[in-house]
Amino acid sequence: GQQLNQSPQSMFIQEGEDVSMNCTSSSIFNTWLWYKQDPGEGPVLLIALYKAGELTSNGRLTAQFGITRKDSFLNISASIPSDVGIYFCAGATNFGNEKLTFGTGTRLTIIP
Amino acid sequence: NAGVTQTPKFRVLKTGQSMTLLCAQDMNHEYMYWYRQDPGMGLRLIHYSVGEGTTAKGEVPDGYNVSRLKKQNFLLGLESAAPSQTSVYFCASTDGGRLGKNIQYFGAGTRLSVL
């Protein structure tokens, strides 16, 4: 099946630092989604992107839909302790079964 | 509005035992999905349903069966559990691409250990 390469796999940062992560695909997606998973919980949507080149913000989070449609980026500015968790990208290619392909996740840890 | 509810939250099985995981959604969504999450492997699709009475195989369907007898419920069954099925299972639902913009809503997960 399709593969989404998400990097980095893990990040250790200090509170207040900015964070960047990305996803790349071997094929084109029509939709990119970014989810966050807190420990012991299910993933929760952060940002949805539907057009190539689109740049969308949600508070301190900003995500971009790559021009080639094969990648997406998520940035978090001025990280705070509650940003800890696992971040997943997900891509969708068509309408009909609405399946998503997920990246392997980026685990964010904030060093006190 | 509960969203997506999964039961049970935790379960320990012995090899060879069977069980059913229940997913219920109250958002009137057409599409429902079962995923498993293993360390370093993200979310992998087991089975999914595009509507009441329909089911289809995902990426890792072997050893699992599903049923969607009612629109709001999606059941995942393990007929003969194996240690390789130790995982965290998530259910998700969506209205789809046109209405729901491909956004899937997830339950809190079921943590299953098979000894």
Question: How many strand segments of chain A?
Answer: 11
- Percent in strands of chain B: over 45%
Which parts of chain B are unreliable, with pLDDT below 50 for 5 consecutive residues or more?
Answer: none
Number of strands of chain B: 11
* Residue fraction in strands of chain A: over 45%
Tell me the radius of gyration of chain B.
13 Å
Described by strand count, sense and barrel closure, the largest sheet of chain B is: 7 strands, mixed
What overall form of chain A do the CA principal axes indicate? globular
Morphology of chain B: globular
Q: Summarize model confidence as the mean pLDDT of chain A.
A: 92
User: How many helices of chain A?
Assistant: 0
List the uncertain runs of chain A.
none
Measure the end-to-end span of chain B.
Answer: 36 Å
Helix content of chain B: under 10%
| Overall helicity of chain A | under 10%
Global structural class of chain B: mainly beta
Q: How do the SSEs of chain A run, as a string of H and E?
A: EEEEEEEEEEE
Q: Largest sheet of chain A, described in full?
A: 6 strands, mixed
Secondary structural class of chain A: mainly beta
Total count of helical runs of at least 4 residues of chain B: 1
Tags for this entry?
heterodimer; A: 112 residues; mainly beta; six-stranded mixed sheet; five-stranded antiparallel sheet; 11 strands; 0% helix; B: 115 residues; seven-stranded mixed sheet; four-stranded antiparallel sheet
Give the gist of this structure:
The complex is a heterodimer of chains A (112) and B (115). Chain A is an all-beta fold. Helix content of chain A is 0%, strand content 54%.
